[in-house]
Amino acid sequence: MSEPVVTATDGSPSATAAVRWAADDAARRTVPLLIVHVVERWPYGISAFPPPGWQDAMAEAGDRILAEAAKAATERRPGIDVSTELTGGTPSEILRERASSTSEIVIGSRGTGGFAEALLGSAVLRLAGHVRGAVVVVKAGQDGPGEEIVVGVDGSPDGEAALGFAFEQARLRGVVLRAVCAWHVPLHTVMPESVHDVTGIQHEQQRVVAERLAPWRDLYPGVEVVEEVTYGHPVSALTDVSGRAALLVVGSRGLGAVGSMVLGSVSRDVLHHARCPVAVVRP
């Protein structure tokens, strides 16, 4: 059987948007959809003494949440193969376990209870940086079609997985792929006599982007590609074009802009400010 698309839900608006996005992608890829709800441990640090019936109540609530999510998925994409799973633990731990049997995990960027902690800040970066394949982060209201796929490009071999994922998404949707490379020179190196060097750097970045894209163009001849090499901050460059995108794709590690985007504060800025779903793809 083909690997399913896995999504997690806690019943929040962003989780519902993630379920709908995952249903769309499962239908495009003709693979099953698995929707997971995690019943978290008793949250008050006294694990041996939860209130009587607490676990049963949480399981009943989880069943309702899963039923609503499955309904949302099948209403969005009638005919897809949907299954649900109710399990215990923490969302980040469970999703890392499920990553071994899927190439794509789709999560909401905000939620209720533990999901607010699990899917924001360092936890989402740990999930995206340590599981294989793609982690797609969706905010409420971001499950629309969009006009193109945007991918961040740098000179790192680790970015190849992101390029492959982005090309496949563009092919499945029949939309343009916009490859964005944003670069900037550190302030202490920008001197009046370096103007010509900056121009040379721009040309070199264009060459690197064209070189990185060439084999993927050969593999996906039907995908129209727009190359965009710009001088500026990577967050600004990518979020500026995210408003018309169906998906913004970045690698989990890399050099320069894309590397810092995923591993540090720039990553959080992109996840918070991008106006479309963001996919972090690890080789």
TrEMBL record:
Q: What is this protein called?
A: Nucleotide-binding universal stress UspA family protein
For this protein, the record's InterPro entries field holds:
Rossmann-like_a/b/a_fold (IPR014729), Universal_stress_UspA (IPR006015), UspA (IPR006016)
Q: Which residues form the UspA domain?
A: 1-139, 149-282
Lineage runs:
Bacteria, Bacillati, Actinomycetota, Actinomycetes, Streptosporangiales
Residues spanning the signal sequence? none
Q: Record's family?
A: Belongs to the universal stress protein A family.
Cross-referenced PANTHER family: STRESS RESPONSE PROTEIN NHAX, UNIVERSAL STRESS PROTEIN UP12
| Name of a matching Pfam family | Usp
Q: Which organism's genome codes for this protein? A: Streptosporangium saharense
